[in-house]
Amino acid sequence: MTAIALLTSINVVLLLWMGTQRNPVYVFLGIARELFSSMRYLLLLAALVSIFLLNYLEQQLEALLVASRLDFTPWVFQLEGAFVQSVQHLFHAPWLTPVLVYFYITVFQALIIGSFGVYLFQRNHQFAYATGYAVLINYVVAMPFYLFFPVHETWNFEPAGVSFFMLEAFPDFEAVYRPLSGLDNCFPSLHTSLSITMAVLAARSGNKIWMLITSISAAIIVFSIFYLGIHWLTDMIAGTMLGVMAASLGVYFGELTMRKTAAAPAMNF
To answer: What gap in Å lies between CA 231 and CA 194, rounded to an integer?
Structure first.
């Protein structure tokens, strides 16, 4: 996890530099100034941090419900067949695997942090709030599906004939990363929904450079979920719908927060 955290941090710096076209040191100073300018930002950050607790509680509750939970994976496989296997057979290449693992593990996380940072630095407060709200919406909507509509990862369903290419570039994935995500937490794909959310927000923010960066990154991440043998096409479709919805609601709540902030200036430090 130390290596992942380090690589994610490096990606955040690079993304902030590319997204703002400014010196990263200056960017971080600007972000810190904006971050501590309002109690609402701190409350939103606390809510985002609580997602990790929510994810932990979901997995604990999932363990308690294991005896009564149905497995919807056969139904999904019957619906879409060997789509993921076909993608793997068509595109698998030794040089491509580490690139996609890198995007799936580190760029994905950095994209969310970077989005929040870019909007804060540019004082685009509505979209800074929108990013935080949208992330929360993604998780709140996805968690009930993980509890009551369990779908196993494609590689973990033998009839699908899918290989887990993640292990080719990240052999310790199961030991290091698995505690953060259950094997049957597939539908909807949060990697898809959150990546799409960041791309949609960037497109609506007016920052053309950031829109290009997030759109390309989202496309690569979505492709990686199939190539690496993790998600189903059904997961991706549901994740895309969730991502678009979360982005739209995030913008709405961001605008609403800005109106309340303007009406109650005493909330600011």
So the answer is: 14
Confidence check: pLDDT of 163 > 90: yes
Alpha helices in 65-95 (DSSP H): 73-80, 83-91
Look up tokens 């619906």; give the residue.
79
Crossing angle, helix 83-91 and helix 208-227, to 10 degrees? 100
Tokens 């971080």 locate to 28
Sequence-distant (6+) residues with CB within 8 A of 145 are 187, 188
Return the H-helix or E-strand segment holding 218: helix 208-227
Rounded to an integer, what distance in angstroms lies between the CA atom of residue 193 and that of residue 222?
9
Stated pTM of the model? 0.91
Peptide bond into 188 cis (omega under 30): yes
38 beta partners: 268
- Mean pLDDT in residue range 35-46: 79
Reference 197, options 215, 179, 224; nearest CA is: 215
- Long-range Cβ pairs for the range 66-73 (8 Å, 24+): 69/147, 69/148, 69/150, 70/150, 71/150, 71/151, 71/152, 71/184, 72/149, 72/150, 72/151, 72/187, 73/150, 73/151, 73/152, 73/157, 73/184
In angstroms, the CA 172 to CA 188 distance is: 25
**Residue 235 and residue 187: Cα distance in Å, rounded?**
5
At 126, list the tokens: 């509505």
